[in-house]
Amino acid sequence: MSLLPKLPIEEKISCETCSSRRHAWFKQCSQKDLEHFQLLRSTQTTLKAGDYLFMEGDTPNSAYTLQEGWILCFKTLSNGQRQVLSVAFSGDFLGYRTKMNQAINYSAMAVTDCRICSFSEKNIIQLLQHSPELIQSLISIQETQANTCRTRLTYVGQAPAKLKLAYFLVDILNKLKMRGVDINQSIDFPLTHEDVADAIGITSVHMCRVAVELRRANIVDCRHNHIRVHDFEALKELAASVF
User: Fold this and answer.
1) Domains annotated on the chain, with CATH
2) How many CA atoms lie within 13 Å of 234's alpha carbon, on the beta-carbon side?
């Protein structure tokens, strides 16, 4: 794995002004702590759409906070097919393992242009030693990710296709709404039908049929890299019926 290029100092964002911090690992920190954390930051970098942050089998010695953009996390199966695990947004923490010298077991690919902030294994240890409350925050992140995986396993394995798609879209929309996106307007939606199909465990052809069904029901229109929600309550009812 090649090293990620560093942004020049004038293009870097400070921890204090970083808009992703309210969703990130150290969202509740004092001014003094933020200044210390910024000193321990390894680098900031950017990715172009289609670039990999890391690939399954790599051993990156850093963990990453996504500051801007969308990243697709997935595993590649032995038959060459993908299983999308999650879509990461600003503030999400990627690539952390308790033993950073072990190979990572999933890939992370930018689906839009992205900005990344990284912390090396050595500096993560220093962060945890300096601020033990970050340990609880890290445990909370890991627990949330585990719960998300269990939920996804349940609906991908058992729910009808229309409900799978509804649940996936509601999850995405809620995360965007938390990040200040007005979901009542047409929203950029960079995921392809293949990406969504690989996330919910159906073929792209089936995905297109279900998307057409939801569009004709005037619930949600997801085409041409945009999504427009016409009836969010109906979409949420479909998603809720999964469980």
Assistant:
1) 9-141 (2.60.120.10), 159-240 (2.60.120.10)
2) 10
Nearest 5°: CA angle at 100, between 95 and 105? 50
Sign of the C-alpha dihedral computed for residues 54, 57, 62 and 67 taken in this order: positive
User: pTM, whole model, 2 decimals?
Assistant: 0.89
The rounded distance, in Å, linking the Cα atoms of 63 and 67 is 13
Both ends of the chain: CA-CA distance in Å? Answer: 41
> Could you identify the residue written with the tokens 């879209």?
169
Contact 123, 42 (CB under 8 A): yes
Q: How far apart are CA 140 and CA 35, in angstroms?
A: 23
Query: Quick one: tokens of 106?
Result: 């999933």
Tokens of 95: 């690539």
218: which residues sit within 8 A by CB, 6+ positions away? 230, 231
Per-residue model confidence as pLDDT tens digits over 49-80: 999 999 999 999 899 999 999 999 999 988 88
Ramachandran bin of 218, using left for φ above 0, alpha for ψ from -120 to 50, beta for the remaining angles: left
Cβ(211)–Cβ(162) below 8 Å: no
Distance CA 173, CA 166 (A): 10
